[in-house]
Amino acid sequence: MPGKIVIAASLAQKPLQGGHAWVLLQYLLGFRKLGWDVLFLDALEPGMCFDQKLNPCSLEQSLNLKAFLRVMTAFDLQDVFSLFFDNGKRCIGKSRRQVLNHVKGSEVFINIMGFFCDEEVLEQARKRVFLDIDPGFGQMWEALGLAHIFHGYDYHITIGENIGMPDCGIPSCGLEWITTPQPVVLDYWPPVFFEENTKMTSVASWRGAYGPVEFQGKSYGLRAHEFRKFASLPSATGQEFQIALSIHPDDKKDIHLLRSHGWQVVDPLKYAGDAWTYRTYIQESASEFMTAKNMYVDTKSGWFSDRSICYLSSGKPVLAQDTGLGSLFPTGEGLLLFETLDEAIDGVEELRSNYKRHAVAARSIAEQYFDSNKVLSRLLGKLGVS
């Protein structure tokens, strides 16, 4: 029988990001489905709490706590978490003592992006694992001496599946990276098939949390730098495109650029602000148009979006910007790749012409390559955990 496992990550800090919630849920629900006794650890500080109007407030009045507890309860995780507040002086959910006992008896402690940093807890872990879900930035910061987030771990996992390969521009930093695709718990993402490709959508942040990185004479940028190259796609194809886009009002030129070419730019808080609206938005779409951060593209990282995996699972074909994916997954049916605007236009036309075939292939790819049972079992094997 599987034993105990710990997953640590940031959920309470991001109560208005449904996609981020699902990234974490795939691991929590996936390991539980395999029979593991899962403990989820999160942390929140007083200055990070805000209310419905985004004003600072106490923990008890915060949207952070309300949204966090709603996710935990809705997915039957209400008894398997601990939210450390104010540097762990207070624990919501399991007590510090219960956490220490669980960690001490666990097979593995997976710390997503190294977010959880309570040393008393981390010291109890038998196998301390860093899980990198934003490949390129941390590695370049490490190589440049700007940050050291990988230290103190026994294993390092990344979803940048080409790291360590000769043509990948992300430095390995002298570490032996275990690569993995991201999982999807298929039970929560059933296929919803449409008769035709009526609306291509996506959910994205225009800039994200990090600025560009200068590394070895080259600048590695953000999604905005890539998306602009394909802004004319709706007007070039006549296809309906909609994006739930987090973009600052000051980016007026970019907003005008998108809308002038026919993009429907909608409010991500309304359409993807929690785990439920996010899932509905994807499942009511016909397909996805996916652009990646310039960091992922120019380094040929092998990164593939967790969001795109949810589209595939839902029977929605994905037209994805190539990040070095050709050798990792089957492409051409269900998952189509592009590098140039002309290739993207061809991809739109192909999906429009053979939509049903691509929709069925999309679900098949999810079942073969991203099913949490397969992905997480294989990952545990690489960690030496049976």
How would you describe this protein?
With 386 residues, the chain is of the alpha/beta class. The chain has two domains: 4-184 and 372-382, Rossmann fold (3-Layer(aba) Sandwich); 186-369, Glycogen Phosphorylase B (Rossmann fold, 3-Layer(aba) Sandwich). The protein is 35% helix and 19% strand. It contains 15 helices and 16 strands. The strands form three sheets. It has an eight-stranded mixed β-sheet with strand order 4-3-2-1-5-6-7-8, sandwiched between helices. Helix 8 (252-260) links the parallel strand 12 and strand 13 (264-266). Helix 1 (18-33) crosses helix 10. The N and C termini lie close together (9 Å).
Query: Under the CATH scheme, which architecture of the largest domain would be assigned?
Result: 3-Layer(aba) Sandwich
Oligomer: single chain
Q: What is the straight-line distance between the termini?
A: 9 Å
CATH class designation of the largest domain: Alpha Beta
* Helix percent band: 25-40%
Classification by helices and strands: alpha/beta
What's the CATH topology name of the largest domain? Rossmann fold
Largest sheet report: 8 strands, mixed
Give the strand order of the largest sheet, numbering strands 1, 2, ... along the chain.
4-3-2-1-5-6-7-8
Structural Rg? 21 Å
State mean pLDDT (0 to 100 scale): 96
Query: Counting H and I runs of at least 4 residues, what is the number of helices?
Result: 15
Q: What is the overall shape?
A: globular
